[in-house]
Structure to design on (228 residues):
């Protein structure tokens, strides 16, 4: 009988640990992306993301990112940028760690090409991360590399499908950071705006999360405002 009670206790503890991470709960990411063209060679990247452990509640993370894009050609863009990230790593009301804040500098290179009807984007990114874990762990500087392969398939002039896979690699301990696999249905609203509704599988070394994504893309041409 004692062994049975010990077994039940272990199962309960395991369930509590799973609940703390929110792994079994569908979350959501609400996103805005913009490439604001100010000249033939330069544009400004603008981005805001709000991420939740559940579909419409239980805040997880806010990410604000901007950067200067240099258009090398129609098929290649280099970016230098900055991001601020505010993270609540606790699921629900289980506040086991302080809030995490991060300042991030990144360098990025985008390369575009087309194979048959498929539009392909390669994104290479380096990140220098200045993270404040709070009183428990203090401040750390981390370095990371990311590569994303994205494929877009136009269905009509209005509708399209979008897929990507992105791998994250650390330059410090634990080489593998995470992998993100994404599939979405998109709609072109105007010539320079679109929306996507999709599904993201965010896989870490010890856990994985299912996330619904709602994204708005708006790429205005502001070159007329900056002409002398």
């Amino acid at each position: 009988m004692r062994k049975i009670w010990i077994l039940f206790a272990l199962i309960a503890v395991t369930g509590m640990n799973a609940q703390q991470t929110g792994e079994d709960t569908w979350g959501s990411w609400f996103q805005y992306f913009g490439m604001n063209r100010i000249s033939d060679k330069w544009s400004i990247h603008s981005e805001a993301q709000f991420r939740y452990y559940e579909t419409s509640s239980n805040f997880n993370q806010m990410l604000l990112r901007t950067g200067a894009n240099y258009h090398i050609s129609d098929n290649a863009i280099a970016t230098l940028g900055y991001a601020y990230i505010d993270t609540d790593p606790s699921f629900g009301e289980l506040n086991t760690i302080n809030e995490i804040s991060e300042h991030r500098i990144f360098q990025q290179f985008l390369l575009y090409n087309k194979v048959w009807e498929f539009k392909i984007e390669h994104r290479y990114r380096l990140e220098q991360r200045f993270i404040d874990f709070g009183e428990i762990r203090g401040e750390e500087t981390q370095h990371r590399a990311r590569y994303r392969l994205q494929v877009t398939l136009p269905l009509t002039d209005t509708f399209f499908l979008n897929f990507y896979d992105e791998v994250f690699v650390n330059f410090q301990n634990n080489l593998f950071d995470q992998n993100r696999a994404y599939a979405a249905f998109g709609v072109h609203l105007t010539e320079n705006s679109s929306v996507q509704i999709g599904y993201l599988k965010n896989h870490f070394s010890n856990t994985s999360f299912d996330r619904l994504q709602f994204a708005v893309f708006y790429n205005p041409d502001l070159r007329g405002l900056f002409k002398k």
Summary: Confidence is low (pLDDT under 50) at residues 1-19. The chain has one domain: 2-226.
